[in-house]
Fold this protein.
Amino acid sequence: MTQLLSHFQAVYGRPATLLARAPGRVNLIGEHTDYNDGYVLPAAIERETCIAAAPRPDGIVRLVARDLDRETTFDLAHVAPAADPQATWSNYVRGVAAGLLAAGYRLRGLDAVIQGNVPVGSGLSSSAALEMASVQAFAAAGEFTVPPDQAARIGQKAEHDFVGANTGLMDQLASALGQPDRVLLIDCRDLSYRPVPTPAGATILIADTAVRRQLASSAYNERRSQCEAAAAAMGVRALRDANLEMLARVDVPDVVRRRAQHVIEENDRVLATVAALQAGDLTQVGRLMNASHASLRDLYEVSSAELDAMAELLRSQPGCYGARLTGAGFGGCCVALVDAPAVDAAIAAVSAAYSAQTGLTPALYPTRAAQGARVELL
Ligand code: GLA
């Protein structure tokens, strides 16, 4: 952090006056349910995006992306998707500025330096982290506050309008609302949520396959349309309102049926996971995680050979309760729940075996559930 602040001083010749930060997220279970008004169970992770900033007297936003060694500028009076295709990273910030302005907030221009350690394109929501940190930075500079659910919606709209991915709200909500040592049971219909303690003695292990998501937006948007088609065929507002009996009664293409079956069963798995966590039954939590992966692989078809290999290797470790892909899929990370004393050995064994099997160098790191977005005035 001191490095970020001294970098700000070096770039702008004055000190930063605020430091906004927002974490990435990992989803324990409940995948592709959020845009079906369903349930999710994510946690904020110990990796975050930080923005050191100071307000400007004009409406200019100057952004320096320290990790990318790039910079770009935009004017709050003309917020548009990055004209410079090299600065697409700034679309998340532009989109947030546009959303805040549309919601009636009065924004001030900013000088800012962005830095983070959420790996990009690995399914840990580096984009939501940047969006939620941007909300915090604009809010602190403009001396207003934004309720977390509104912040999440503004981040989501930035993805839709400026990035072209019709994502749900899970990532932004997890980044905005995260609590230490808690996963969040979020009802994506009314956005109510309940913090659920992470199990004592077990560790959330993230395993990055080192394969970046590919063609994710088009395949994601296609899944979303298939879910909407299934809901329409059953005459319900969203798949949240459907069950397997209703699905059996309608005439829909097989692929649409499989997508809907995944979502209906995944919603049940989320609630069952919460019950198992509360009962301290980690074996059952692990089973549900494994079933979620199988469903994402076979019914929702968003897994990959590497994600399947990683999940298998994780599960074969002593002390591992279960493992599944986390996030949208198509590459990225798995999440596993592992007995705390067994974590180091599991990391070593899985890293070696995955490299031998795929020729890729994975990244495995344990995380605790972490605090959500916040800002500090300096
Ligand atoms: C991405 C999206 C989320 C959610 C997941 C899948 O992370 O941003 O809204 O749909 O995929 O669960």
